[in-house]
Amino acid sequence: QRETENQTRYQPAILTDGHRVEIVANIGKAAEAAAAVEAGAEGIGLLRTEFLFLDRESAPTEDEQYAAYTEMIRALNGLPLIIRTLDIGGDKVLPYHPLAKEDNPFLGVRGIRLCLREPDLFLPQLRAIYRASQNGPVKIMFPMIATLEDWHAACEVAEKVRLEIGADPVDMGIMIEVPSAVLMAAEFAKEVDFFSIGTNDLTQYTLAMDRMHPALAKNVDGLHPAVLRLIDQTVRAATKENKWVGVCGGVAGDPLGALILTGLGVTELSMSLPSIAAVKARLRTTSKAKTQSLAQKALTLSTASEVRALA
Ligand code: PEP
Ligand code: MG
């Protein structure tokens, strides 16, 4: 079975009735773009740019970032690249950029909140992204968006940078990983080009369970019906505005998760490289209608273990 998965990894994930799911990769380093294509990815659904900033003595300069993004664009050879702006804070800290001590870092100045307060980090990154976008298909995605104000403020900064550089507009999307963003998804959907659901944080914030907490680990499950209902709500809001929804959290790379997400109407699944071949193979064994009934069933269940039992 492994062997056939491996042989068919370059083929798209087309269900038995012809429905196609886009399978893309999560990466963190420039060299991983080529590896993602090699693993069968049809693009990059999440570039975690914080990895370009970690394990260094200073932040990468605009030119260094431009070179890294351009290396990925070249390796992708026309396949899409979604660049998430710096998502630092929470569990990720930069040794050369001390953050104020916080009692609750995951509820603190994290992700877009940090970038909006630190133009020295945000502006060079946006400049590098817009410059690189002239070399191939790039989309920009903001992490940890909790309010419309976050989104408007981020867009305002990005648009200013874009105009200074004279770059063409690119698609702009947000991570859906905070419950408030789901509850306001109808409003966001009118303005964004796409949503990408971060089930790791969405699960953490919905269940109020630290995603890193060893004692809670087995209960922090992105297939919990509470999370699935939020995903359903997000897809419905996006569909009304003809916007597409991806998932880039761990649920996308889980074969049962991939089926349920497809049934909920998610059209792009972004996952770590080792999951790609198996998820594609699993999707090919079923139809859109079957994933829809599986998803509808999952939405009626009461616990994550009942959802897991559908496998
Ligand atoms: C997520 O929260 O699901 C996500 C994809 O982002 P990260 O894991 O980098 O927080
Ligand atoms: Mg996240």
From TrEMBL:
It comes from the Bacteria. It is found in: Cytoplasm. Signal peptide: none annotated. Belongs to the PEP-utilizing enzyme family. This is phosphoenolpyruvate--protein phosphotransferase. The gene is ptsP. The chain holds residues 509 to 819 of 819 of the full protein.
